[in-house]
Amino acid sequence: FTLEKLKKNVPEKTTSREIQSYIRYVSDIETQARRCKAIVQNLLRFSRSSRTVEFEELDINSVIKETLTFIEHQLQISEVDLELALAEDLPKLYGNPSQLQQVFTNLIINAMHALGPGGLLTITTRLSPALGEFSGTVEILFTDTGCGIPEENIKKIFEPFYTTKEVGKGTGLGLSVSYGIVKEHGGEIMVTSKPGQGTTFTIILPVQKHAPAADKKRVNQ
Q1: Which DSSP symbol is given to 12?
Q2: Which of 51, 89, 82, 45 is nearest to 67 (CA)?
């Protein structure tokens, strides 16, 4: 069965409310299956000597909002409060929207796992001054009020297959893949955390003074 067939083959005598819940759950399965596929594809790319990534001009706030449309139902189920503090009039960036959505999804899901009902996740964007060859950087912060990360774990948090989650609840790939994607965009990803107080992941992406010579960026390892 495909997911589309599952959506159409709803059992008889099912109420309208149950049908809507059924469709939402199937959509969540579809979203997570695509996320898993994207993680595997990125790992395969990382194993090659070189790879080509499609870059285009993008609005980072729009990429964040698009990501939230795919995951807002999970936030509601988890009873996690979301606050957006997105700066207006940010400059355009050059990057791959699908890959950045994957990074944002990973960070949001990690925050959900760290938060209990009533916890708060704040997503912030802001512009930093010009630096070196770049005409500034855009920072994207994911701040949660969760349990925090012990200092001894922070040093290993971006390592492939490293996870503190229970068996079956995490692969340990999400943050390592996210780290590679951000680096591929010429950026940085950092984490600050205090146990019992919460965690902030900060992504820093460069604002290029000129568009790339081509809409593809080849990265060699």
Answers
A1: S
A2: 82
Q: Tens digits of per-residue pLDDT, 62-111?
A: 999 999 998 888 888 889 999 999 999 899 999 999 999 999 999 999 89
Mind listing the pLDDT tens digit for each residue in 25-58?
777 777 777 767 766 765 665 554 345 678 999 9
Residue 59, token pair as written in the block: 């609005």
Contact between 138 and 128 under an 8 Å Cβ cutoff? The reply is yes
Q: Cα 140 to the chain's mean position, in Å? A: 11
* Secondary element (H or E) of residue 211: none
Question: What pTM did the predictor assign?
Answer: 0.71
d(CA 137, CA 91): 9
Report the C-alpha gap between 95 and 93 in whole angstroms: 6
- The domains of the chain are located at 3-49, 56-206
Domain 56-206: CATH architecture, name and number where available: 2-Layer Sandwich (3.30)
- Number of C-alpha atoms within 13 angstroms, CB side, residue 58? 23
